Amino acid sequence: MPKPIVYLAGSIGGLSYWEAVGWRVAMRDQLGPFIEVLSPMRGKLDLRNEEVLSGDYPSSLHSRPDTIVQRDLSDVRRADLVIVNGLQGSYGTALEIGYAVRGATPVVLVLAPDDPLRAHPFVRALPGLSVVATLDEAAQVARSMFNV
């Protein structure tokens, strides 16, 4: 039986490499060995010295705009669940949420309890979207969903 797949969406641009990677590594560890985790930062070790990431590194195969979009949307299509770190917003992340919902892939969105986005009609009523307050809660939802 194949492992369930979880895609980890969230901000990258404007963060350091390690800020973009850190929560994703922690989430992968929390989800454990029975869930396959897809990170948009995989294969981008060449950016590890970047203090502020942008969305365009023409000399990096996995970090050009065309390859970023193609791979990330492919990952969202493959995923059984998308976990979104919404603690820092991103236009690309919003697009990934829409793409997941359009494909009937469930989404767990992490938003701070006092985030005004929680009151937005799309957040409150979008089919397949669950909102939690912490990354730990998102991991619990995923483990429960996949019975691991």
Highlighted features:
alpha/beta; Rossmann fold; 5-stranded parallel sheet; 5 strands; 5 helices; 148 residues
Explain what the structure shows.
By secondary structure, the protein is of the alpha/beta class. It has a single domain (5-145), classed as 3-Layer(aba) Sandwich (Rossmann fold), CATH 3.40.50. Helices cover 39% and strands 15% of the residues. The chain has a five-stranded parallel β-sheet with strand order 2-1-3-4-5, sandwiched between helices. The longest helix has 15 residues, at 17-31. The chain is globular and about 40 Å long. The mean pLDDT is 93.
Sheet having the most strands: 5 strands, parallel
SSE pattern: EHEHEHEHEH
Q: How helical, in percent, are the residues?
A: 25-40%
Distance between the termini: 13 Å
Shape: globular
User: What is the beta-strand fraction?
Assistant: 5-15%
CATH T-level fold name = Rossmann fold
Record field, number of beta strands? 5
CATH architecture: 3-Layer(aba) Sandwich
Strand order in space, largest sheet: 2-1-3-4-5
Summed up, the helix count is 5
- Could you name the CATH class? Alpha Beta
Mean pLDDT: 93
Structural class, judged by helices and strands?
alpha/beta
- Sequence stretches where pLDDT stays below 50 over 5 or more residues: none
Query: What Rg, in angstroms, do the CA atoms define?
Result: 15 Å
